[in-house]
């Protein structure tokens, strides 16, 4: 049995690797000629780590991951620590570490595991058709491919989503802008083994360690869509938005390279319940585009891949039946993740200023138990426990 996989991002590559391990043949096609990952890094929480472990990348992932042994929230203006706690109770409960990794390095690991030369780059899908026995995909270069089924992992701007749903869905602006990138670790900004977040005014500045003596950083600011800001104004923009914030934040702004810093207006998509049409299935952001507020977007795509391969391998009533069983296992889980991220987004970014102010006060009494319990609940909802 052969699968066409559309998209060579995290979801598409995880799906292709998982399907091949389950005995399927795959062909992967990617619209761009060269992969340039959106975003500087990604936090892979233990549910995602377990998926990559199961796909044979345990050692490779550890080489890319940073040591995130502690978690801390600091006051925006004074820089004082509001709370700090070890991540070890989470690790012990769920049985795996979290690993922040540079996104380009994660992408390269997935592609190299599958085989870079096997991927059809520069192949943008334009049309999909299916019969009772197979699927045909057409590409903008005039070529076509046939297979027994097709997995659409073509991202939040998915072309194939419309085919599956029979209608277009609008992306929803989450109300904030995120700047992200990588800098050399500087312990005058934050400890090298800690996820550090400065919070205030409905904004945040966060740093996570990744391999190679680097911090992954991001800034969040609630803003209107479509402001005329780009790399040429980036440092001045951040200095304005974070005027009066603590010295470590100012040092971080000084340290960043505007040419390698991304500015992203954050969106999600209202959850929907149809991931499958016959022999065509959506996966990853094409099926459940989320904000990054609980760090589960990439992890959810990896979970999709594991469940897809498990389900197809374990059932024998045909591809269409197997894909519907994949859908049944993923719809509620991914809806829950999208809505949890949206709720966290609103609290973090002061959609209701009183609720956010109350959260800041709660952080002063936080021992870590409540925060880690919420994380464990999310992690343990994954397909590998």
Automatic annotation (TrEMBL):
Pathway: Purine metabolism; urate degradation
SUPFAM superfamilies xref list: FAD/NAD(P)-binding domain
An example Gene Ontology biological process: urate catabolic process
Domain FAD-binding: residue ranges: 2-338
EC numbers, comma separated: 1.14.13.113
Molecular function as annotated in GO: FAD binding; FAD-dependent urate hydroxylase activity; urate oxidase activity
UniProt KW keywords: FAD, Flavoprotein, Monooxygenase, Oxidoreductase, Purine metabolism
Cofactor(s) needed for function: FAD
Name under which the protein is recorded: FAD-dependent urate hydroxylase
């Amino acid at each position: 049995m052969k699968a066409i996989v559309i998209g060579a991002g995290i979801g598409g590559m995880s799906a292709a690797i998982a399907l091949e391990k389950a005995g399927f043949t795959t062909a992967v096609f990617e619209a761009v000629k060269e992969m340039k990952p959106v975003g500087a890094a990604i936090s892979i929480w233990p549910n995602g780590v377990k998926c990559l472990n199961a796909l044979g990348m345990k050692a490779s992932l550890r080489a890319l991951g940073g040591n995130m042994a502690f978690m801390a929230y600091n006051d925006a203006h004074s820089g004082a620590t509001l709370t700090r706690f070890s991540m070890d109770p989470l690790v012990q409960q769920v049985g795996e570490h979290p690993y922040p990794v540079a996104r380009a390095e994660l992408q390269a690991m997935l592609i190299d595991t599958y085989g870079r030369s096997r991927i059809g780059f520069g192949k943008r899908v334009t049309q999909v058709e299916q019969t009772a026995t197979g699927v045909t995909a057409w590409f903008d270069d005039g070529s076509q491919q046939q297979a027994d089924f097709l997995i659409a992992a073509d991202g939040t701007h998915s072309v194939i989503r419309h085919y599956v749903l029979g209608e277009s869905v609008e992306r929803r602006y989450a109300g904030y802008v995120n700047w992200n990138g990588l800098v050399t670790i500087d312990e005058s900004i934050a400890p090298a083994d800690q996820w550090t977040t400065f919070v205030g005014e409905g904004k945040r500045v966060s740093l996570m360690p990744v391999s190679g003596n680097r911090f992954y950083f991001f800034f969040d600011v609630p803003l209107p869509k479509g402001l005329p800001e780009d790399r040429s104004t980036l440092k001045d923009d951040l200095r304005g938005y974070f005027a009066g914030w603590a010295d470590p934040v100012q040092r971080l702004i000084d340290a960043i390279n505007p040419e390698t810093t991304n500015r992203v207006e954050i969106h999600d998509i209202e959850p929907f319940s149809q991931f499958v049409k016959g022999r065509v299935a959506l996966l990853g952001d094409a099926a459940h585009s989320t904000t990054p507020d609980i760090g589960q977007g990439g992890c959810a795509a990896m979970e999709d891949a594991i469940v897809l391969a498990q389900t197809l391998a374990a059932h024998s009533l045909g591809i269409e039946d197997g894909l519907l069983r994949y859908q049944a296992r993923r719809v509620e889980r991914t809806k829950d993740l999208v809505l949890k991220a949206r709720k966290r987004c609103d609290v973090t970014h002061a959609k209701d200023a009183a609720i956010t102010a109350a959260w800041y006060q709660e952080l002063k009494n936080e021992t870590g138990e409540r925060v880690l319990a919420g994380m464990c609940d999310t992690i343990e909802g994954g397909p590998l426990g």
